[in-house]
Amino acid sequence: MLWVLSLTVLGLITVVMLGAWAFGLSTRNGGWTDVFWTFGSGIVMAGAAMGSISGFDAPPARRYLVAMLVVVWAIRLGGYLAPRVAHHEDPRYARFRADWGKDYARNMLFVTLPQAPATALLSLSVLIAAAAPGPLGLRDAIGLAIFAAAIAGEGVADEQMRRFKAAPANKGKVAEVGLWGWSRHPNYFFEWLGWLAYPAIGLQLAQPVTWLSLSAPVVMFLLLTRVSGIPPLEEAQLASKGEAYRDYQARVSAFVPLPPRAP
């Protein structure tokens, strides 16, 4: 049943991402890809978490808890992305449009559709957490605490960046304030941290299948640090800010918040 639900997630989110691709082309704004993916993944995974998984004795309360975590994640991230995308295209997608020219539509399909299997892999963590047997207890509290810390940290990072950009004197400067002085991408770090909540709830050492709950933090780490997160964003920042951003890279951790190195 676990695999059936995961494949169902794959099918549904593939339809969502095809819609994202078409909508992005019609509006000439590739940033809607992220909005569709966030809300689509949240709805599909929350629904799957509430589904029946045979062979497990999960209490309804845990299914509701896990589904709630997914919904809160989608609302927070999607609610942050949608207004930004509605006003201007994300620099990553704008760069794709400029670099790819007439091949943009075709290439964007290969950017958009791979996000569907990524969601299916993320859903394994969600489904295993939702199916964990036994009454609510310490592991659920730990998972909830991790999730709350991640949501709070990401919210703080986003607000610090918003205030920095709102100040006219900071136009064209590198944001090195608050959490951004310890990590070049604290919002990505806290986004990744939130996915550790699901293995905290669902991982059971004696049940090998539950080790698949680690799929979400692993997949999200790779996406954020190697694929669609840090690499294209840093390339865009280097193109716009040059040596100032190169100096920032030399002193400040890329992902995990750490004390900055001396100049």
Shape verdict = globular
Secondary structure: number of strands: 0
Whole-number mean pLDDT: 93
Characterize the main sheet.
none
Radius of gyration: 19 Å
Helix content: over 70%
Structural class: mainly alpha
Name the assembly state. Answer: single chain
Secondary-structure element order, as H and E? HHHHHHHHHHHH
Low-pLDDT residue intervals, each spanning 5 or more residues: none
Question: Helical stretch count?
Answer: 12
In terms of DSSP E residues, the strand content is: under 5%
First and last CA, distance: 55 Å
Number of domains: 1
Brief overview:
The chain has helices at 2-27, 32-49, 60-87, 91-100, 104-112, 115-130, 138-166, 186-194, 197-202, 215-227, 230-241, 243-251. With 263 residues, it is an all-alpha fold.
How would you characterize this protein structure?
The protein is an all-alpha fold. The chain has one domain. Helices cover 70% and strands 0% of the residues. The termini are far apart.
Structural key phrases:
globular; 12 helices; mainly alpha; 263 residues
Secondary-structure topology with pairs:
Layout (H helix, E strand, L loop, with lengths): L1 H26 L4 H18 L10 H28 L3 H10 L3 H9 L2 H16 L7 H29 L19 H9 L2 H6 L12 H13 L2 H12 L1 H9 L12
